[in-house]
Amino acid sequence: MTEPLHTCAHPDEQFPDWARDFARASAAEQRLELEIGPGRGGFALDHAAAHPELDLVAIETRRSDVEEIREKAHKRGLTNLLVFQGDAKLLVPRFFRPGALAEVHVQFPDPWWKKRHQKRRMVDVELAVQLRSLLRAGGTVDFRTDVPAYARAAVESWEAAGFQNLDGPGALWSGAPEVLSTRERRYAVTGQPVFRARFASPGPVEPGIAERAAALSAEGKSGREWRDVRRK
């Protein structure tokens, strides 16, 4: 198993130097992407392999999955993928400076079905606003889920945070992604639907957007119980 070069900034740095860690000439020439919750890494590994010109940082909570992805990346000779264990909501603001990211991938986050667990859901307005501040102008979000209610809630959250829905307000993407996750490849056989959406950041976050976004989404977050059934 190969360990990442750095898990935090050096003492004299505010943020990690990703250009250095990925052996790129400069940050200006680097296309830096983030995947939150890669699971066992099916998408992360294939995406990094298909695009050696980009650098992908993945954050996963399960240590066993992190170790598995690192081992597979090492075996495949992927030097443009680094995987870290931890809570993305805590690590992301410590990992990336504003405007550093070109794309963010959030695929099949845990729906946390029970009402009392709603606060644990990954995608909410707070995260959307945070990611918008870290994406460069025109930077994109790739969101995928197999839970219809999560798709609706996520679209509301991204749009409330000021993201442009690339397929129109409130719309899901009907196209097919270049790289499928392991789950999507399985669903292609079983027929389980996948709900995808794409968003673009219009640029720096304007003052007060977090408060306005929270107010816009408050009704949708107040006690809704998701009753969608996700097939395994």
Give the topology, please.
Layout: H1 18-21, E1 31-36, H2 42-50, E2 54-60, H3 63-75, E3 81-85, H4 88-95, E4 101-107, H5 125-134, E5 135-145, H6 148-160, E6 164-165, H7 182-190, E7 195-200, H8 209-221
Structure in words:
By secondary structure, the chain is of the alpha/beta class. The protein has a single domain, classed as 3-Layer(aba) Sandwich (Rossmann fold). It contains 8 helices and 7 strands, in the order H-E-H-E-H-E-H-E-H-E-H-E-H-E-H. Helix 6 packs antiparallel against helix 8. It is globular. The model has no long low-confidence stretch (mean pLDDT 86).
Number of helices: 8
Mean pLDDT: 86
Structural class: alpha/beta
Which regions contain 5 or more consecutive residues with pLDDT less than 50? none
The run of helices and strands is HEHEHEHEHEHEHEH
| Global morphology | globular
Q: Share of helix among residues?
A: 25-40%
Report how far the terminal alpha carbons are from each other: 30 Å
* Strand segment tally: 7
Number of domains: 1
Name the CATH homologous superfamily: Vaccinia Virus protein VP39
Q: Which band does the percent of strand residues land in?
A: 15-25%
CATH topology: Rossmann fold
**Biggest sheet layout:** 7 strands, mixed
Tell me the CATH architecture. Answer: 3-Layer(aba) Sandwich
Strands in their spatial order, largest beta sheet: 3-2-1-4-5-7-6
